[in-house]
Amino acid sequence: xxxxxxxxxxxxxxxxxxxxxxxxxxxxxxxxxxxxxxxxxxxxxxxxxxxxxxxxxxxxxxxxxxxxxxxxxxxxxxxxxxxxxxxxxxxxxxxxxxxxxxxxxxxxxxxxxxxxxxx
Length: 119
Fold this sequence. Notes:
Layout: E1 12-19, E2 42-47, E3 50-55, E4 62-65, E5 82-84, E6 93-95, E7 100-103, E8 114-118
Antiparallel strand pairs: 1-2, 2-3, 3-8, 4-7, 5-8, 6-7
């Protein structure tokens, strides 16, 4: 929470909750019945002008966020910077019609979910 709290506290839902292949079962006692999340499982929150994309698994080389491709029409603003919470420098990224692709830092800033601040 010390690293990713900015992407959680005081945020609001975005247009969609997330993307990714892992299906989450509903109901009591179903948390042990699902597969582990992958780097393609992403959840979104928003605060002010920032959009947060939280990768639920570590993307080894790059994160590919299809919902933020220009062809999807969900994020109409230009992107000026992408930062990972807990990392001191901006990340390199490209955006095309299909996706926003972000080069991951060499080291993980924490052990679990990895929050990207998109502005």
